[in-house]
Amino acid sequence: MNLLAHFYLSRFTPSLMVGSFLGDFVKGKQYQKFEPALAEGILLHREIDYFTDFHSIFLQSKHRLVDQHRHFAGVIVDIFYDHFLAKNWRDYSEVPLENFTQQIYRTLYEQETHLPPKAQQVLHYMSQHDWLQHYAELEGIARTLRGMEKRSRYPNQMGSAVENLQQHYESFEHEFFDFFVAVEQHAQWWLAKR
After folding, report:
1. 53: containing domain
2. Among 84, 90, 151, 160, which is most buried by a count of CB atoms within 10 Å?
3. What is the mean pLDDT of each run of 10 residues along the chain (194 residues)?
4. Residue (of 57, 26, 59, 56) closest to 44 by Cα position
C-alpha cells in the first residue's frame, strides 16, 4: 500500500500515522530506537506491506503490469490503489479528504524532529504539492509516477504506467475494492491483538 492507504489504516491515531510514514525510511531493527507508539506505527506499516505483497487480489493487479514494468509493478499498483482510495474517499470516511490530508501534514510537521532527513525532505515535497489530495485525479497519479521514474536509480517506465491504469481502469478499481476490505480487516485485527 502507498502513503494515503497507510495513513487511513492508522485509524486517525497521530502516533500510528507518523510511524506509518516512518515505515518507508526505517529499516531492520532501527524501529526499536523510536518511542513505542511510533514503533508500533512502523510495525503496522510493515505488516500491511507484507499482507499486501502476498495477497491474491494484489498479485492479480500486479500481474497485469509485470511484462512492461517488471519489479516496479508492485509499486505502481500501490499508487493505483491510493488513487482509488482518494477517488472513493467518501465511501470510507466521513471526514473530507482535504481535511484528512491537512491533518496528516500537520501531524507529521509536529513530529518532524523524529523524522530522518530523507523523510523530512519527502514530507516537504508531499505537503508542498499536496500529493495525497491529488491522488484522486489521474493527472496527480501521472505526476507521482513521473516523479518516481526520475528519482529511481534504475531504468524504468513508471511515468507511462498511467496508460495501463486507463486501459484497465475498471479491473483495477474492482480489485482495489475487494482488496481494501481484506487489508482493512487485517490491519484492525493486527492492532487489536497488540
Report:
1. 3-192
2. 84
3. 96 95 96 96 97 98 96 96 98 97 97 94 94 95 92 88 97 98 97 90
4. 26
